[in-house]
Design goal:
nucleotide-binding; tRNA threonylcarbamoyladenosine biosynthesis protein TsaE; P-loop_NTPase; single chain; binds magnesium ion; magnesium; metal ion binding; 7-stranded mixed sheet; binds adenosine-5'-diphosphate
Length: about 160
Amino acid sequence: MNPYQMITNNINETQEIAKRLAKYLKPGNVITLEGDLGAGKTSFTQGLAKGLEIQQTVNSPTFNIIKEYQGRLPLYHMDVYRLEDEHEDLGFEEYFFGEGVTVVEWAENIREFLPKELLNIKISRLEAENRRLIQFEPIGDQYRELCKEFFQHENIST
Ligand code: ADP
Ligand code: MG
């Protein structure tokens, strides 16, 4: 079983987890959010933004593809669900290797542009209406370390 997972019972719990995760993030970190429509990817990003001390309201960037917010670190929020051509590079690397934290919804649509190391977070609906399984899938040493610290220090029971 994946040791880095938890269940949330409502949107507030999901956002609280994301908010706490934000403390562990550094410039250049990339998080991909995996999950069906309505799973909670944008809600998770909103919690993360709170944790990054972003005052602005974060909403779905579907029509802009990329939105940028200023906080303790900049947040680059991408939603590439409606990307017309998945081989078109919209300058993604500038964000991935920039000074901020990048969060990507529907990252599978830009697979060829993603960095080698990243933290994939999978959100799945469970039977009960507001229950979600949140699974952290670190790729690369720095993200494995990040998950280890986060789950230990924040006392998250799995
Ligand atoms: P996505 O970006 O994945 O399409 P959203 O974050 O926009 O999803 O929407 C998630 C919806 O599910 C919101 O309406 C939210 O209130 C609801 N919801 C219910 N339970 C949860 C939960 N445990 N975590 C996150 N969202 C939840
Ligand atoms: Mg969304």
